[in-house]
Amino acid sequence: MITIKDHYPVIDQTIQQVKDRFGSDSKIAVMFENCISNTLQTTIKVLDDGSIFVITGDIPAMWLRDSACQLRPFLFFAKEDPEIADIINGLIQKQMQCIQIDPYANAFNECANGNCWEHDKTDMKPELWERKFEIDSLCFPVQLSYLFWKNTGYTAHFTMDWLKSAKTIISVFRTEQDHEHKSPYTFERMNCVPTDTLSRNGKGALVKSNIGLIWSGFRPSDDSCTYGYLIPSNMLASVILENISEIAEQIYHDSVLAAEAHQFSSDLRKAIESLSIVPGQSKEFYAYEIDGFGEYNIMDDANLPSLLSLPYIGYCDRKDGRYLNTREIILSDRNPYYYAVACAKGIGSPHTPARYIWHIGLAMQALTTTSAKEREQLLDTLTHTDAGTDLMHEAFLVDDPAQYTRPWFSWANSVFCELILDCCGYHLEM
């Protein structure tokens, strides 16, 4: 039976490495120790079947995306510590169970207890906390599975349930390429802000069907899409479809599934590269969302996947020309959710109030930069905007970091930890 311990030697050794790199009494070292411990000690629960349930922090539910990102830094420790490997394996087991319960849901309860965020008009089940369809909810568990294998050699998580879930994901993606005519999914929330529901009786804003892209009802922020083709999430989908292809070939020896996933990935990437470039610009850069009819949303959101995160999710290199052009746009006032004052500047989200910068966005900017100076400046911002808590938050007011949202937000803690590990020479094989 898996048990969550107070200390793991490999993590303690890494904490010491961080202290050696930045100074034992440095703010960065203190924050790293607190953040890595916070995720491990406060958000992980072992269930009776041996699977692992990971809450976001201050919300008692498990998001498929968040939980994968929360445990991603622990991939660095799993190769040396079988107990940590068992925790990641247990999470993947639970995630695949969730996908089989409902591949359109984004957040799940520990059991079929009927808890939920709201009583929404959609096909709810007692296991679901929320049923907002977000492409990335299906992507991150696959990527975690792939990275777990590639960086540790561990394969026990590749069960028949995993294979069934992978096929389910492909099936849902195929359906949502023609959302208008083939999809069974609708979602409506009553008496709420417009971004918490879908228009047209729950169908969402109209998109052009069968252009090669996958429709998403909601962004990784859980806000509804303005235009239904969310480009960063389609990019992540193209990455994980290639992951499925490699896993099918090498682990399951299923050449048919491997070929199908590879072709899907290739076709999706071609559609992204031909359809998501904003026209009429001096430099080519990606839109955040499109509808296929000629509308483009020029912005970025700090939630992952984002346009800023493309190298992090494995879509392109940090020096890729279109990525660098896009980065220049989204880290400027052309992105309506980019805020800059003397003490801080970074990307926020329409999910939080105006002028609130996200710690995840700052950490991601540092993880994807090619500039040592930019990274140093971002580290300084991260360590001076924690409001004295020695932990990351969801977002802070750019004019006053003492005002912040979600003091217990494990996803932000984990991305910060991954940044510090990257500074210390830890890099995942993608």
From TrEMBL:
One of its GO terms (molecular function) is hydrolase activity. Keywords: Hydrolase. SUPFAM superfamilies: Six-hairpin glycosidases. This is Glycoside hydrolase family 125 protein. InterPro entries: 6-hairpin_glycosidase_sf (IPR008928), 6hp_glycosidase-like_sf (IPR012341), GH125 (IPR008313). Pfam families: Glyco_hydro_125.
